[in-house]
Write a structure and sequence with these properties.
This protein has 476 residues and is mostly beta strands. Helix content is 0%, strand content 45%. It has 2 domains: 307 residues, Tachylectin-2, Chain A, CATH 2.115.10; 141 residues, Galactose-binding domain-like (Jelly Rolls, Sandwich). Strands 20, 22, 25, 27, 28 and 30 form a 6-stranded mixed sheet that branches. The protein is elongated and about 75 Å long. Keywords: Carbohydrate metabolism, Glycosidase, Hydrolase, Polysaccharide degradation, Xylan degradation.
Length: 476
């Protein structure tokens, strides 16, 4: 029996945000920056690549380190971090990786003969006279490159616009020569920032960062993170370098605007910045994005959701789920880790973790782990206090008669089970304090059908939540 897939799609100890998915041959490769668990800064790790066969998005393989941060000549001492990259196959058939170091305004390029081999430095993007893009008088600093190759031309999309910085204008695009580092035309500005958006249609969802470009049915989709941070938006045009109009939100990493199961304005997870893109895999399109863990901005994990296109090419917003790559609801039997929660919240509501570098305080539950990394460090939910809940969507339930939960912590009370975030409990599982992981059971029936499951703690002090088991056999 094929194992179910869920979010996050990589192991719970891996932190690869800013995911750029690309299909090369019969595999999908994800390129992203590399956070650390309990990190103190964005993107401190070397670039790693993960891949999966296009026929099975549950079977991910780590291809290893493909580029070290010390491989860039400007970063021989390794003091700067590798920010979000992208990869394209050039006119010569080789694979080109583009990135920006965290304190430089220029775009670096590396090259490899295979999608996930060892990339080697290939130069800096520059104008024909040799001036580096980002260094010419009047240039905007470069950031978050996204790339698309069509024939002999590669389109390079960049930009970074803080909400309070009027010196920035918006996202931009350059055309590159076949050598992949020389600017042929541009830069041209595409999506406005917050100071230049009046009358454009982008008001309220202006460009912030995270440019990514895809093409479908003759339309160019420019995916980006807006000034709100938590949302991935898209703009659309029939041209790669002009006339983009606002399309909408593809996904929000706190599920803002979604109203299918809760009020649209209510956040259901602790959001923060967002970065990712869309990709077609065996006739199904997906959005890759990231979520925040450990109560900070600096330990982000990749997630996947299927998306659809309307007849006019627009994209309805995707809902955050636990079953993202599973091609449907998860089986309503077996044991599931708590770190796959797609909803996590408490009475003290907050849409965001905090500003970068700040920690959420002790009121908030968070997904975390024991240990620094490796396969032994499974994630779990820490600091569930009275009224806090973890939600999992969705399960196909059939004759579920017993629920067990594995917890630890000083709390005493019960975990209520709900199928709606604000519904009436179906029942509860009593939990008692323990310094080690302890399993608690209760005979509790879930109606047949597809349901979300919410585990809400009621009790004293706090508990950590490791996993839960759904069973049709009360004797299990």
């Amino acid at each position: 029996m094929k194992k179910p897939g869920f979010n996050p799609y990589l192991p719970s100890w891996e932190y690869v945000p800013d995911g750029e998915p690309h299909v090369f041959g019969d595999r999908v490769y994800v390129y992203g920056s590399h956070d650390h668990f309990n990190g103190y800064v964005y993107c401190p790790g070397d670039y790693v690549c993960w891949s999966a066969p296009v026929c099975d998005l549950t079977d991910w393989t780590c291809e290893g380190v493909i580029y070290k941060r010390t491989d860039d000549p400007e970063n021989g001492d390794g003091e700067m971090c590798l920010y979000a990259p992208d990869v394209t196959q050039g006119p010569d058939g080789r694979y080109y990786l583009y990135y920006v170091l965290d304190r430089l305004p220029i775009v670096s390029a590396a090259v490899c003969d295979t999608p996930a081999g060892t990339y080697r430095f290939n130069g800096y993007v520059h104008y024909p006279d040799g001036t580096l893009l980002g260094k010419r008088p009047g240039d905007q600093p470069q950031f978050d490159p996204g790339v698309l190759t069509e024939g002999e031309t590669t389109w390079l999309y960049t930009g970074f616009c803080r909400k309070n910085d009027p010196s920035r204008i918006g996202s931009m695009v350059c055309a590159l020569e076949p050598d992949m580092v020389t600017v042929k035309e541009g830069p041209d500005f595409l999506i406005p920032d917050a100071f230049h958006s009046q009358g454009t249609g982008f008001e309220g969802h202006e460009f912030f960062e995270a440019s990514s470009i895809r093409k479908r049915n003759g339309l160019y989709y420019l995916i980006y993170s807006s000034i709100l941070g938590h949302e991935l938006c898209y703009a659309v045009s029939r041209f790669p370098n002009r006339d983009f109009t606002y399309g909408g939100v593809i996904v929000s990493n706190n599920d803002s605007y979604i109203s299918t199961y809760k009020p649209a304005e209510r956040p259901m997870y602790y959001g923060g910045n967002n970065h990712g893109s869309i990709v077609e895999i065996q006739d199904q399109w997906y959005v890759f994005y990231h979520r925040h863990t450990n109560g900070t901005n600096f330990s982000r994990q990749g997630c996947i959701e299927p998306i659809t296109f309307r007849g006019d090419g627009s994209i309805p917003q995707a809902e955050m789920t636990s079953c993202g790559p599973n091609q449907g609801p998860l089986p309503g039997n077996g044991t599931y880790p708590a770190y796959i929660a797609c909803n996590l919240y408490c009475r003290a509501e907050s849409a965001f973790t905090a500003l970068p570098g700040d920690w959420m305080d002790c009121r908030f539950p968070k997904i975390t782990q024991d240990g620094c990394g490796g396969s032994e460090a499974q994630g779990y939910i820490a600091n569930l206090r009275d009224g806090a809940a973890a939600g999992f969507k969705y399960f196909s339930c059939d004759a579920v008669k017993q629920i067990s939960v594995t917890t630890r912590g000083m709390g005493n009370g019960a975990i209520e089970l709900l199928t709606f975030w604000d519904g009436n409990p179906l029942g509860e599982i009593p939990v008692t304090s323990s310094n080690e992981w302890k399993t608690h059971k209760a005979d509790l029936r879930i109606p047949d059908g597809v349901h979300a499951l919410y585990f809400r703690y009621r009790g004293t002090k706090n508990i950590s939540f490791h996993s839960f088991t759904l069973s049709a056999d009360p004797g299990v």
